[in-house]
């Protein structure tokens, strides 16, 4: 997407920022909503099965230790 096109899209969405509904608001039928929901669930279920990287685990442990120090005062 070019910068001009992106700016134009941003202006269009800001122009309708008054909370008014357009007569042509996009809607998805229930079958499409279900299909998208199923695909998102499958994608995130797979992600949730992956182990937490060691680096993140170490950071979480450090945060826990710092929180316990702060909480004991």
Automatic annotation (TrEMBL):
Report domain Anti-sigma factor NepR positions. 33-66
Pfam families according to UniProt: NepR
Entry protein name: Anti-sigma factor NepR domain-containing protein
Please report the organism this UniProt entry assigns to the protein: Microvirga lupini
Chain intervals for the UniProt region annotation (Disordered):
1-34
Database matches in InterPro entries? NepR
Query: Which domain of life does the protein's organism represent?
Result: Bacteria
């Amino acid at each position: 997407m070019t910068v001009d096109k992106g700016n134009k899209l941003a202006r269009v969405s800001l122009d309708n920022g008054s909370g008014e509904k357009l007569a042509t608001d996009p809607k998805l039928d229930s079958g499409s909503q279900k299909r998208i929901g199923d695909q998102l669930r499958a994608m995130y279920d797979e992600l949730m099965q992956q182990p937490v990287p060691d680096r993140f685990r170490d950071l979480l442990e450090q945060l826990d230790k710092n929180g316990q120090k702060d909480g004991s005062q």
